[in-house]
Amino acid sequence: MLLDSKIPPGPIEKKWTNHIFDMKLVNPANKRKHSVIVVGSGLAGASASASLAELGYHVKTFTFHDSPRRAHSIAAQGGINAAKNYPNDGDSVHRLFYDTVKGGDFRAREANVHRLAEISVQIIDHCVAIGVPFAREYGGLLDNRSFGGAQVSRTFYARGQTGQQLLIGAYQSMMRQVGAGQVDLYTRREFLDLVLVEGQARGIIVRNLVTGALERHAADAVILATGGYGRVFYLSTNAMGCNVTATWRAHKRGAYFANPCYTQIHPTCIPVSGDHQSKLTLMSESLRNDGRVWVPKKQGDKRPVDQIPESERFYFLEERYPSFGNLVPRDVASRNAKMVCDQGLGVGESGLSVYLDFADAIKRLGEGKVREKYGNLFHMYGKITDENPYQVPMRIYPAVHYTMGGLWVDYNLMSNVPGLHVLGEANFSDHGANRLGASALMQGLADGFFVIPFTLGNYLASQKLAKVTTDHPAFADAEKTVSGHISRLLGVNGKTPAVEFHRELGKIMWNQCGMARNEAGLKQALEEIPKLRERFWREVKVTGKSGDLNQGLEEAGRIADFLEFGELLCLDALTRKESCGGHFREEYSTPEGEAKRDDENFCHVAAWESKGEGQTPVRHEEALTFDNVHLATRSYK
Amino acid sequence: MSNKMKVKLRVWRQKSKDQKGEFKEYTAHDILPDMSFLEMLDEVNSDLIRKGEEPIAFESDCREGICGTCSCVVNGMPHGPEKGTTVCQLFMRSFKEGETVVIEPWRSAAFPVMKDLVVDRQAFDDIIAAGGFISARTGSAPDANGLPVPKANADAAMDAAACIGCGACVAACPNASAMLFVAAKVSHLGLLPQGRPEAERRVLAMVGKMDESGFGNCSNHYECEAACPKEISVENIARMNREYGLASLAGKEKSRAEGGI
């Protein structure tokens, strides 16, 4: 199939505006005749549900959580970017566009990124209107701060809880529509399959997580806003429930999976303390505004921090990247932390961490000001490590955080499967090979509040949609597939808890396909993963029944999908013979250890088509062109 | 490592909403002080699975204290003994070798137990759907800086908005009242100028739904504030009572003017 990105013609600044006018509209009286399924209730899902319901569509929203407010967007800490230029420091839509294309290492679509930058401004207006309590200055106007990868202050924030506040804003807007009867909310339902009727996405199969019953739901279109796949690495900053199941099962039904190898390793996380750990905790990137990253200059220097004089400290980011310093983008900061630890300069018991030191900031601003800015983060750090970061530097190490890859979508956010739309982290579209800080919240809300309300209308108005009910045989077929899978999981009856396979998969992924990748390691991973998957299906133990609240069954189903998806991720990483953004191939680097792109051969999106179990997936390419931000080597020196 | 510890657990097990529950005893072996409380439960569950027994059902998601999913009463205290902490932020270093730890679900008529430690908190969503929002259509907002908000108001709104909707306030209250949860939302939105136009409607609708959902009344025990992982102040309850009183009065006056009672 040809990958048509459907980028509208015209100059970059006009594409979206013209496209809005060119798109077909659904008459207000007809909107209520259309039903839309939204899976996921994070920023993208909740905002899409709210805005589509406001327009009059009948929306059915599904979440596996007990409440839509639990979605993992809630954990985003730092902030949300917008080209408001309130600080008068030279920001503009064009600069945000430029920074994001460059930050993504020239692997995102220019047209999508420009639209995102344009919409960023509307997002802040809307979020203030719905009551998001952003930080303000004494004059009552909004405050901004700078964030990694940018030289202007364009990040809006609500203490260290920006994701929480934005999600609650979107959630409340959606709940207003639930109260008004425009959104039917289905909590504790897990998406387990996509239903296609005559090639169009017309419904879903979900499992009611309380009763265990499989339920069928039909609609005129399906939206997946189901987040990223970071937990394929087992340890990540993602929440326990984050999974690839929805996007992976849609992929198996025909949706292309794009750029799965683009994974973001976040530089500032609390280091791993042992094998028992279930997840890692992020310390917001905003900390790099005031914290200085360093390691001792001497290998194996075990002296307490206060006995290491200034002259024996290596502020590696400030020294190597003088113009961006501690604020280099995430991929660069992570890679450098790994590099110094690999050189034996790391600190802490394992030697796998670097200092993030606030002593200077506390001296300059006073402890009170630092507490006001980062109090909840310092508190969280103290709880986990039992150390007081006001007195001793934090210790941080990179951890898996965000996934830029996802289901392939065109400019209208529709996948190659007609009617299947994909929003937020679940799609691949806007961040290229590396996402800049404070851009995920922006994208989730842009997709949900300001893109899908237009593009979905265009889709619905351009189709002749036959009436489909859940009696259609396609629903019975999909349900049979799902129940077969569940029975298979319960039937293995081995001896090993599913989580042990997840841990093993995570180790393979982190070691062979983490911050640095090479051909030999990836080939090894591609041998190990199928073997692990085979063992899973021979030895896993899932207790209980399917017709019951059964968390072990839910978890095992998600792990089974990760065990398949991990292989595609490694295959994508092996095939992309270049380094770009978060995808760092050791064979393709400059003598200074910086990523070396191959624009000649890899200036494209790789979108994988599933050919069924046991078959090699087929790789399709969508060429990327850069007419406005010219291809250049990224430099933050 | 030499600092491994052992704790005894008394855990509430209940098969479903309609069946009776009971405490069961387990021993958690080889626990490290750096393990989180929920990671300790993960280990206990893995052992149960290996023995072919059903693991203890409990909920958690972000495991960093922000999503509000985790919810159990530890030694009689919602979210356990540490102040300003969710149970997912509780670490085993807070417990002693050989100690017996009692783990129960939230207990409230409005939060029925679904299984073991899992409760149904849909009543909170219903309260938000009744009025916990600002009615602003997507696309209709003025410039974000068009309406300045005094910093003190914005900060106080943020303090209240920090609520994670976990329900510990209800679990801690002898009357199982949801006043702190509702008051936090009334304050968050009511302190902002954007939220004033529908402030009266909001407080009446939310309190109405709260009463309907089976939550008890507030009788000033302040246990909610003590249990709140985000340390949300009971001052919000006072603010809500004031808003509610004024809104009820305004409603009565309005209906009198319109020829009602």
The portion of residues assigned to helices of chain B is: 25-40%
Total beta strands of chain A? 21
Lateral arrangement of strands in the main beta sheet of chain A: 5-2-1-9-17
Supply the number of structural domains of chain B. 2
- Provide the CATH architecture of the largest domain in chain B: Orthogonal Bundle
Mean model confidence by pLDDT of chain B: 95
Distance between the termini of chain B: 75 Å
Task: Characterize the structure shown.
With 637 residues, chain A is α/β, with parallel strands linked by helices. Chain A is built from 17 helices and 21 strands. In chain A, a hairpin with a 5-residue loop joins strand 7 and strand 8 (214-218). In chain A, helix 3 packs parallel to helix 12 (440-462) and helix 14 (498-513) runs antiparallel to helix 15 (519-539). Chain A is globular. Helices cover 36% and strands 13% of the residues of chain B. Chain B contains 8 helices and 7 strands. The mean pLDDT of chain B is 95. In chain B, helix 2 packs antiparallel against helix 6 (199-212), helix 5 (179-190) runs antiparallel to helix 6 and helix 6 (199-212) crosses helix 8 (235-257). Chain B folds into 2 domains: 5-114, Beta-grasp domain (Ubiquitin-like (UB roll), Roll); 121-257, Fumarate Reductase Iron-sulfur Protein, Chain B, domain 2, CATH 1.10.1060. The longest helix of chain B is centred in the last third of the chain and has 23 residues, at 235-257. Classes of the chains: A alpha/beta (637), B alpha+beta (261).
